[in-house]
Amino acid sequence: MADPPPKDWSVWLFEPSLPLAIVGTVVYTLVTIWISHLTCYKYKAWYFVSVPIGGLCQVTGYAMRAYSTQHHQDIGVFASSTSLIILAPILISAGNYVLIGRLIRAVLPPERHRIFKVPAQRLTQVYVSFDVVCMCIQSSGASLASGVGWVGQLADIGTNILLAGLALQVFAFSTYLCILVRFYYLSRSLEVPTSPPGWLNVLKAVFISSILILIRCVFRMVEFAEGNDGYTLRHEWVFWVFEALLMVFALLVFCVWFPSKYIGDAGASKPKKSGSEAAGGSSIT
């Protein structure tokens, strides 16, 4: 018969801070309420609803983390908290991805609604599809690893799956930043006179949020690649700097520069033109 685990056994590899977990929960709650108000009430920007949903996942994850700091042997709460905090940024990423098409349509002339020969609407579809695939891969890995308390052989398999999902997310965001840079370059010479006056604020928000999420994904890749013996998993400050702090600013930037405030419906999808109308347009890469 196997020996029972020691009474001081803990799912944590360090002594977690309850005050920091409470502060994290409160801060994410306030930011999520703010972005939810802007999205669902003030501007009714339903295209952006994945962002407040991601914020709600963060709030739940940090609240569960606060509970877990005082219940070190509750594997279920610890695993759920970890999974929610890992997966929430994917929903926030979707908000970044839906904005590229709106920016292109709001700022560039109709015949230039292509970046690297890809139509604006297709760009949104491609990157949102990337996001869905990342969500499926990362949730599968997180579910497998969390189901065994993030320890053991199955946890290692789940972690490798999660790493693959994170690597895909890093790839997606890296190419997305290239798209944003190309769009900005084109906008300098091709901006239409009717473009919304505050569109550059939206582009700033997307740039900042995307870069912060990209850095966070790289951090997570390093963390899981190092394993339980790595520095990142054994020192709590790394989590608060490269996960909690980066992601709260990735959310907060859209509270300051909310897309619908600056571009409204100017970048919304338009009905498809007839073949004769579309034939007159040209494109550049």
UniProtKB/TrEMBL annotation:
Superkingdom of the organism of origin: Eukaryota
UniProt cross-references to InterPro entries, sorted A to Z: RTA1 (IPR007568)
Keyword annotations from UniProtKB, A to Z: Membrane, Transmembrane, Transmembrane helix
Main location per the UniProt record: membrane
Membrane-protein topology: Multi-pass membrane protein
Transmembrane segments annotated in the record for this chain: 20-38, 45-64, 84-105, 161-186, 198-222, 237-258
Compartmental location: Membrane
Name of the featured protein: RTM1-like protein
Species for this entry: Apiospora saccharicola
